[in-house]
Write a structure and sequence with these properties.
This protein is mostly beta strands and about 120 residues long. It has one domain. Helix content is about 0%, strand content about 80%. The chain has no helices and six strands. A four-stranded mixed sheet has the order 1-4-5-6, with no helix packed on it. The relative contact order is 0.09.
Length: about 120
């Protein structure tokens, strides 16, 4: 499935959706890039996909200022495994970390690992 809005900001479409393979372009997975991007691999201000990168990234693997996903990396990270300034997850690593296993200078959670050790 492919969709791209006609509205553009600079060279980027406002909305871009690319899900699944595309036989015409020989793509194995959908690659979406736009202000709002939804796809197997998504890059945008708001990105939603299996692999997502953007200011707000939601996906199995999320990279962003605010990242939500199975594995997330960001300034604020929420996920099964979260790495960031403020992180919340099953395994959380960050300056402020909260989770089942929390690692960092200020951990909160089940198993607290103070790192770096003082």
């Amino acid at each position: 499935m492919r969709y791209q809005s006609k509205a553009m900001i600079g060279d980027f479409p406002v909305v871009c959706v690319a899900i699944g393979p595309d036989l015409q372009t020989q793509q194995d997975r959908g690659r979406a890039a736009g202000i709002i991007a939804v796809g197997d691999v998504a890059v945008g201000i708001v990105a939603i996909g299996a692999i997502a990168a953007g200011l707000i990234a939601i996906g199995g693997l999320g990279f962003g200022v605010i990242a939500i996903g199975g594995f997330s990396v960001g300034l604020v990270a929420l996920g099964g495994a979260a790495v960031g300034g403020v992180s919340l997850g099953g395994v959380a690593v960050g300056i402020r970390s909260m989770g089942g296993i929390a690692i960092g200078p200020h951990p909160t959670g089940g198993v607290q690992v103070y790192w770096p050790p003082s």
